[in-house]
Queue: 2 jobs
Job 1
Amino acid sequence: MEDILSYHNWWNQLELQWQLAFAKTVLLHNNKPTEVELAALYNITTLRLAGPSAPYPNMQVELTNLSGIKNLPNLSLLFVTHQQISNVEIVSTLPLLKSLFLNNNCITSLKGIETLTDLEQLYVQHNQINSIKPVEQLTNLREFYVQDNCIASLDGLTEKHSDKLTMFICRPNEQLKQKEIIRAERELGIICR
């Protein structure tokens, strides 16, 4: 009974945009969720929320924040693409996250991902990110897509990344100079595509 009550409390505290997003993409109806549905949603491991401009959208509105994922402790794969997200700090509450897709948003900073040390895939292309420094401790990254942002430096990547990081896409980034790419390839052993 306590879990059921906490699931209902969680649902009732969600912003309307998130209730609508979950209704459209997970519950697949607009009725009040059942206890079973809430329990399943609360314990979901994979969530895909593709906004209306995505190639294969599953939503007709754009989310403006990530508040709805805050209490989804079992998420390991999260897609929130083609939305209006600008802040990602809330992802720090998702310790099991392995894959994070936040491409085509309005993100300016990766602050919040520093604690996601099990993260293997990070897709943040087509944003307004100006630094990749927060990935410094994410040495389990296998794929990192950060092209079409505002980065001028690859500070944050270390030699420890070179063991697993086999797909690093950083071009184009208008402010990223060729000498910085060469430095990363020579000193860190990371191929910059």
Job 2
Amino acid sequence: MTTFDTVAILTYFGQSNFAGKIIILVLMGFSLLAWTVMIGKFLDLKKLRTANASFERTASQVPLLLQIDASSFGKQWGEGPFSFLVSEAITAFHRYQAEPEQQNRTIDALQLRMGHVENALQRAVAEQTMKYETKMVLLGSIVTGAPFLGLLGTVWGVMDAFGSISQSSATLQTLAPGVSGALLTTVAGLLVAIPSVFGYNFLLTSTKLAITELENFASTVADRIELEAHQIDI
């Protein structure tokens, strides 16, 4: 931005009414908040993706998941979403051993245990999904609200500009400064919303892909545990 542009913007800001100045300052805060959320969310997704890939490589080399101590996942296996899913599934599978043997014997024991595993995986996926989607509502609100705030400032400024000339002769020189200051709020709203909407769409797509990978991994874990249970005859 050139020096002339900066001076012009400062001039327009000075010509804005009180409400317009407040709205511009609020939009500047929204812009800072939006960029903070977008950068932080991108880094969070990258960190989770790296943790999942690392765990998936390690887990593929383990002969039997059911022989892993579930309590060791947080320290030894990391704290990524995939690690959490496997920990919950193994815990649910072994929890059935502590239940009384006098339960309904018409139900196959393995099917009952796999029911526990699938329920645990569903709960774990739902819990991790909420973590994936955190802060997206805030970013979406900024994307939606910023243009309307800018429009509100413009309408308010134009209303004040026309109201002020009603008591004097209406000329271009008297009308232009107020209109210029009013239009600045619309520009500010668009400068907040445009980068935010691109960032929101990118992050939303990345989040949906991550959730799909999470659901597919949960299904894979359930299949693997069932096969291992048959293999070791639990």
